[in-house]
Amino acid sequence: MLSIHDLHVAIDGKVILDGLTLDIPAGEVHAVMGPNGAGKSTLSYALAGRPGYEVTGGSVTLDGDDLLALQPNERAARGLFLSFQHPTEIPGVPALTFIRTALNAQHVARGEPEISAPDFLRRVRAEATALKIDFDMLKRGLNVGFSGGEKKRMEILQMAMLRPRLAILDETDSGLDIDALRIVADGVNAMRSADRAMLVITHHQRLLDYIRPDRVHVLAASRIVASGGPELAHALEAEGYDKYATAA
Amino acid sequence: MSLARAIETGDLTALPSRRDEDWRWTDLRGLVRSLPPASPANDTALPPGPFEDLGESIIKVNGGGPERLAIESGERRIVALRFIAGAGAGAHVARFSVDIADGAELTLLESYEGAGDGYLTEAGMSIDLGRGARLERIVMARDGADAISVSLAEVTLAAGARLAQTILTSGAKRQRLETRVIHPGGGARVRLDGVYRLAERRHADITTLVTHAGVDGATDQLVKGVVHDQARGVFQGRIVVLPGADRTDARMGHHALVLSDRAEVDAKPELEIYADDVACAHGNTVGALDEEALFYARQRGIPEAAAKAMLTEAFLAEVIDRIGHDGARDVAHAWLASRLKAAP
Asked: What three-state secondary structure class fits A171?
């Protein structure tokens, strides 16, 4: 479903990713692990199309379509969702308004009818309940004054509402205590399906005890240097990233 | 120096110029090379005003019409006061005075409406609030793109009075909306808000002067603006706390978004404090839309133009949400939404 081939990305002329190749078939969850500064967040932002992340070579396709030719909102409408490591606060735009605007924008882009207000409210109530999000919080400015855990749950709520084809979870475990981690992981696991792919980016193995990946990749020194099954995550936790630091 | 005097005497040297400190960003002398003819009397049929049906109407066209409104003790009234530059308007001065007796209440829905083009006008408002009187004044300025328009309101409060003001403007060729408040302290409270949203080559200047003359007064000010294209926004806010006006609580905030390389915002927030034991603060920011928020919204599927409009509306709505009168607040929100759609 997602196919990344020989991807090169630079920020302000500085090379961050230098020939990254990765394929994620539909129905699978892949984890990318790596030391700080290896380029993990750069990978997620480059896939989402963040301005300033210059793709200098390689290709990325989603369901065969050239992702790199699309605007960020067009990528979202094709089904790409990024759960941000540091979700942005948007004062003055209630979470409910924001999510409904996003959902309907995606529907319009795909030529689908907009969702009615009652249907939207019914769905968002159910998803918020599952994620233990107080419904009144959705009437406040998006993420404004939310705790770290609340922000991450709000990301998962948006993912559940938008039902993406490809979900990228960037350091979703950072800043979460164990209870919040379990809620978030349950929310992610509930989204696993045969026609959805997930890319879980994390520094620690801990998250992968809750979200079991099909494949684990090591991102070090600007490219994927090792791949394996879930056992690779445990090996990394035990041995650290040192041996990969010079592998590239 | 005033536009009104220049219009009334025909003497162009009476126009304020950039050499006058308070007018340096809203120069009129350099702009007005000759006066248009005096505006004719006008009694043609008028389109509905922005606050239609929210209250009784007082209409002034081309400077003519009623000149005084008195609210008696115990009365609560809602009045839509319309200053209209009608078809064929040239130069005119419009005057109006409002007296609100002790304990009386007025919601004043004031509008500046330009049907014609190329007019030159000054409106002079004199407003008096008695002890414990209340005034919510909402000013919507909808001048023509070629208009030169000044409004000057001089407001005097007695102890315990409340003034809550919100200015909403889309600018003109050159436009200034000035408010001067004599604040007696004594538990009187003032809110002086404003929103400007300017496109093309429009100019709007929101200038305020609050003079705290007695103990225990409060002033709270929030002005926000967005400028597009080659528009220019000006905010000059001055709060003076005179000797003896102790325990004054004054807060001023001005925040603007500049959404084009050729647009401009000039701001001068000033606190002059000559008293003791006062709580005064001001904040002033001028910047661009939050790129992080913009990318976040686009990542969720919202196209760039819609995301910008959403963030801009949210930015300005904070001021509009402070309007007390429900109907006027709805009109203001609708104005904001329509202005945002019309913007590039």
From this structure: coil
